Amino acid sequence: MKNLSRRAFVQSLGLGTAGAFSAAAVAFRGREALAGAWLDSTQAAPLGDASLLRLDSNENPLGPGPAALEAIRAAFGEAGRYPDNPSVALTDALATLHGVTAANIVLGSGSGEILRMSVHAFTAPARALLQGQPTFEDPGRYAEVIGTPVVSVRVDGQLKLDLNAMAGRASGTGLVFLCNPNNPTATVHSSAALSDFVAKVLKASPDTTILVDEAYHHYVEDPTYASAVPMALENPRVVVCRTFSKAYGMAGLRVGYAIGHAETIKALRRHKLANNVNVLGAMAAVTSLGQPGLIDRERARNHDVKEMTRRAFDQMGFKAGASDANFIMVDIKRDAREFQAACRKLGVLVGRPFPPLTTCARISLGTSDEMRQAIDVFKKVLAS
After folding, report:
1. CATH architecture assigned to 6-65+293-383
2. Cα radius of gyration (the chain)
3. Which CATH architecture is the domain 70-289 placed in?
4. Closest residue by Cα to residue 137 from 189, 184, 204
5. Quick one: how far is CA 102 from the chain centroid?
6. pLDDT in tens, 354-382
7. Structural domain boundaries of the chain?
8. pLDDT tens across 142-194, in order?
9. Which of 141, 198, 221, 343 has a C-alpha 20 to 30 A away from that of 23?
10. pTM surpassing 0.85?
């Protein structure tokens, strides 16, 4: 079968004109037109709206790779079947990748379901969730729904999670959520700092579980960083979650997983939705894992666009913080909500406000062409 371009893929589905995605949207946004994201309903871009650059949800602007799109099309014949076999295939592929067994892996509908499973498995009204502030909000939202208290510790002056302060608040908590690199600040902690943190937390609170969210793992450039997966495999009180939404470009397909000690994974699996990963997503993920060089190319592309964008803000007189992700956080020295609204009027969506960092804007990294267009808008807004 010939390679299938993303544009041809959309057209083959009959979505090019009358469907949800317009031909104009695909032409303007290219590969990114296929990627979906969770958005505040008041800020969401209408489907197929080619007038907006969506730099607000940390998506991969290239979308799934060509081989993944081929796998999706090939899997259409299984769309009428439950995803048992594809889920087993993906679990086995992930186990092979990490050198573990299927007992060490549980799949999720994106990493979002893993976060929900963790909150349900390890917290309770008497066992709080501990997190940074700001950080990815979903664990806190899930905790509030089931009556779990949420303890939030503000990031430090370098916009890093304040690990010492968090360890000091860990006693009696059920779950510590550690996003590394952290969303929205894009900062990362070293392997040594993470190991020290885990030791401090478990000394103060031996029954606490630490969930390390590595959604942006593939984008990290800091040489002192290392994945927490080996720690999670050895220590039943640590678990790691990953996603195919970012570097693999599959945000709309919803595929994620947790990896850890078999007993910890067993506890998570009790809260898993049945058939939580769909046939198309599972097969796209399996295929993506087998593509040599895919992640290296994406990391290099992201690096180049990130540095271009950081330089542009520096030239405008605004400091972009350190970033080991596919987005940057910039201190724009004004109200972030007003900046967001002004950018939207000029056709660019940027991240929602993240209190208490009220003068900082999170900007996802699009393609080089998209970022050049966006930089022109940022210059206009910040000069006004």
Report:
1. Alpha-Beta Complex (3.90)
2. 20
3. 3-Layer(aba) Sandwich (3.40)
4. 184
5. 23
6. 999 999 999 999 999 999 999 999 999 99
7. 6-65+293-383, 70-289
8. 999 999 999 999 999 999 999 999 999 999 999 999 999 999 999 999 999 99
9. 343
10. yes
